[in-house]
Amino acid sequence: MLSPLTVTFVQSTFLNALSNILAQLIDQRSSPTSFTLNTLALVQFVTYGILIVPVNFYWQRALEARYPGFPSRAEIANVFRCSSRSCSLKAFFSFSFIRSLFSSSSSDDTLPSHKEKDKEKWAPRARKSGLHSFVMKFIFDQTLAGVMNIVLFVVLINFLKGEGLQRLWELVLLDFRPIMIARLKYRPIVSTLMYTVIPVDRRVVFGSACGVIWGIYLSLYAVV
After folding, report:
1. Mind listing the pLDDT tens digit for each residue in 53-94?
2. What is the distance between the alpha carbons of residues 49 and 62, in angstroms, rounded to a whole number?
3. CA–CA distance from 181 to each of 39, 124, 134, 202, 208 (Å)?
4. Which of 91, 93, 94, 175 is the most buried (most CB within 10 A)?
């Protein structure tokens, strides 16, 4: 049986190749000549995808290990119930709401005594709520993972084109802002689905499937 990483490799490579071919079709749509596949650009983009798969695969596993689980139906219902009742922003972001969000599901409101602290020192840590896990994974995906993936894209795709180290850094500074802005226009929706219903070993493939359009954008940005 194939390992989850191998399955992810195969599926993500196919989807990355598909997105690059579609990008080439779009790029050549106004050309008077018939479509010609840019094999070198296809190989470069697929190679970039192969290199990035294990990074994201193990990143998702590490993130899930640190913040396990999904939001429960009750937690989601509470959020929507607050919205349906037109809760004020002050109430929504009140200390009690934030404390309940980031506190463990089994914690009390009372402060523990010194003896209780000593007992709890060696006790297993209480599991955080699913909503807390979702929020933390969502934040990390929009910030740290976003920066990591954009820098790796710019560096790897241009390195495969033969650019030197100094030029790579110049391109990171030049391209980071527009790519990040474009990413923030679609990634929050993908992250919401990814961290509420998609199993951890399927998240890279799910991201690639949702990212076919994103892959087209990256291919066009890289001048296919």
Report:
1. 999 999 989 998 998 887 776 766 666 566 555 554 444 444
2. 20
3. 29, 41, 22, 26, 19
4. 175
The model's pLDDT over 102-129, given as tens digits with 9 standing for 90+, comes to 444 444 444 455 555 444 444 444 456 7
Helices and strands per DSSP (H, E), number in the chain: 12, 0
For 71, phi and psi rounded to 5 degrees?
-60, 140
Q: Is there a single domain that holds both residue 14 and residue 95?
A: no
Return the residue matching tokens 């010194």: 114
Work out the angle at residue 129's Cα, subtended by the Cα atoms of residues 125 and 131, and round it to the nearest 5 degrees. Answer: 150
**What is the per-residue pLDDT for 87?**
55
Angle between helical axes of 73-84 and 130-142 (0-180°, round to 10): 80
> Which residues partner with 104 through β-bridges?
128
| Structural domain harbouring 149 | 4-70+134-221
Coil, strand or helix: which one is 203? helix
- Residue ending a domain, choose from 86, 106, 126: 106
